[in-house]
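Priority: low. Protein: Ribosomal RNA large subunit methyltransferase H. Input follows.
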Amino acid sequence: MKITMLAVGTKMPRWVDEAYTDYAKRFGRDISLELKEIKPEKRGGGVTAEKGIAAEHERLIAAIPPRARLVVMDERGKNWTSVKLAEGLKEWMAGGDDVVFVIGGADGLSQELKQRADVLLQLSAMTLPHGMVRVMLAEQIYRAYSILNNHPYHRE
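Result:
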């Protein structure tokens, strides 16, 4: 199974890249986690938030692999536990589906992309820095994987 994290934004602080990489390399052969950074649209000079979101939307759509489950991160999405994420991961694996998690840019994501999502998922009700979201999401995906494999990483 291939899990892709599409994240609007580039040039993250080193600690973000190091933490993400640490989690991404923990998976076994049956799952790979790959980060694809999407160039954010520059704001200002007549580029409104709406125009920026539309441009980022086009880049995100182009990067979504065909026939992949689409999980869009949104503060108003479903509030799953780690165990529920593990159940979702198990279902997607059983169906042979690849999964794409989408993290939006500074102004968020288009309504069209949110409506297209198979799951609209909340990582936190609080607004988080985008680099932190990458790290926390990678950790939660790894935690779900460890739950499925009865690894002692997760404790109830």
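The chain has a mean pLDDT of 93. The longest strand covers residues 68-78.
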